[in-house]
Prior knowledge:
- The complex is a heterodimer.
- By secondary structure, chain A is mainly beta.
- In chain A, 0% of the residues lie in helices and 50% in strands.
- Chain A is built from no helices and eleven strands.
- In chain A, the strands form two sheets. In chain A, strands 2, 4, 5, 6, 9, 10 and 11 form a seven-stranded mixed beta sheet that branches. Chain A has a four-stranded antiparallel beta sheet with strand order 1-3-8-7, with no helix packed on it.
- In chain A, strand 4 (32-38) and strand 5 (44-51) form a beta hairpin.
- By secondary structure, chain B is mainly beta.
- In chain B, 0% of the residues lie in helices and 54% in strands.
- Classes of the chains: A mainly beta, B mainly beta.
Amino acid sequence: GAVVSQHPSRVICKSGTSVKIECRSLDFQATTMFWYRQFPKQSLMLMATSNEGSKATYEQGVEKDKFLINHASLTLSTLTVTSAHPEDSSFYICSVQTSRDTLDEQFFGPGTRLTVL
Amino acid sequence: AQSVTQLDSHVSVSEGTPVLLRCNYSSSYSPSLFWYVQHPNKGLQLLLKYTSAATLVKGINGFEAEFKKSETSFHLTKPSAHMSDAAEYFCVVSEGTGNQFYFGTGTSLTVIP
């Protein structure tokens, strides 16, 4: 398996500011990480696939200029919510897939709760 | 197209009684199926997975699930509920194309003492 951490676990910011969320794979070099978003009492929705050394792949309807993803190393991917607004308040979760078998499980971080005032 | 339907948004059981959380899926290919559990303020934890091996899959904490292709179902069961089982449970399907994980809407399990 893989141990995945996220920082911060909670963040509160004012509307219009930018927030950076870090996702670290502590014991596995991950060429691919995933970013999900979970609204209260709803399911997880994939936002983007983060690829080390290249551009992220965004899902339909996700604004790439608003949700900036950087995967500069094999153990770190960052998600920056730019010019955050209250509707961006959500639970953001990253995950790692350790196997090249894309049918295999993903290992999830503990999530970051973002509240935009 | 692929999708996951969790038939119950909320399930309540008494401690010591069986648990059944239902999941149906649709998939164009031979999927992998997973059950994850999410405790409050904690990350998602894998309970079990089906990846085209045995159709009856045993997971952690006494949970198991049976893959029934004819019924397109992957229901999660446990013979005897514990208080610590109270959490949100997600059924997930992956077809292996593009690394996509498709989550069901979740089932909240309450265990009554």
